[in-house]
Amino acid sequence: MKQYIIATIVTSFLFASCKLVNVTDVSPVNQLEDANAITSVEKAQSALYGTYGILNGTGLAFNYYMPAAASLMGLTMDPAQDGFDFAENNVHTSNYWLESMYTGGYKMINMSNHIITKTTALSGSDPRKKRIIGEAKFLRAMSNFYLLRLFGEFYDTTSAYGLVLRVDPVKDAEALPRSGVRATYDQINKDLDEAILETNEFSSTFYASKIAARALKSKVLLYQQRYAEAAAMAKLVTTSSQRNLEDTFKTIFSKKIRDTKEVIFQTPYDAGTNINNKCYAFNTWFVPSAYYIAFMKGDQRDSMAIRVTGTRVRNGKFMAGQVDGAPSNSDTEYFIRLAELYLVQAEAIVRSGGSLDEARAALNKVRKRALMPDVTINDKAGLLNAIREEKIHELGAESGEEWYDLVRYANKGELDIKTFKPDFMGKQRYILPIPLKSIQASGKVVVQNQGY
Asked: Can you tell me the mean pLDDT for 46-67?
């Protein structure tokens, strides 16, 4: 585990002298001390480790607040001690979680920009340069995608409400306006295309790889409604021999970060430096929702996904246990695992007008592992709904994927979110507001989302 501990250490080192210019940008990278500058491939690699560390650190934006926020906005989590306004889909612009998520995302982007720019400028032909740049592009793409789903109108490629796009290290406090959603997707796809070419083949769930970039791109293409391309990209992942489904659903969450066959990209954690208290929060601050508890009845994954002890009902996927021989409340975030890619593939095939038999085969691959009977639905609308529901069975109370699915399906007129959340305020609450501090710091160059 020692090689992964460096990620958190380097993150602290790199940002020790930084303070926010505004909520979206860390202080200009040229203000970092010379000792932190990328002047060699070795220092570029250290900076990259630090950027990975943002996934675990920086206010726990990626492995804590983002999955909790989306799950609360969706159907699978209820607030017990925190997150009530997310569950009500009515978040105030000064909410702490907003700032943590928004700032964390842009810190990731800024450090990725720093690595890409400075590593490209290094002299010499060290082959590590290409791989370092490719991994940084993957991290930049991932951060932009996560920010877009939370803060941009990701469901409408014609919308002007995309992200503030930055592809260069911050040099001053100049505020930039938001780009449109199509331009945001274009930048994400460009980074992922280059990451597919530049990263290495899979070697660890903790680092970007070609298969991770392909997996993320298949999701991006699905959201962008480029369905045939999404299906083809997902198939490259599901037919690869590099990753396989675990033998049982339970094994995913008992293995965690140890010798997993299924996880494609996740955060490390240990009993020392990478402490995130996720188990405690996901079992005490947020609990399985009444909808999720009822929905999982009759599914073979129920007893693993939801743990019942007396009158206490807990999230079974994130349970406190032993790490390196010591008790720990830390846990991982499963950014991408193979089961989801089968379901992305299934939906994309149906929506692209492909073979329903092929779509069912991808869906039933996941159901077979769960010891559930095959789906035999033979109409497009029914199969799409079965795929959406299978995502809840398989991925519920993990990362809030069901919320983004609700938005995508509702935007196409295929369901009404009020059916699931009667008090839902409507389309203006599909996404979160930009943090007030960021709007103010930009001199209102950054425009707030509609309805806030």
From this structure: 92
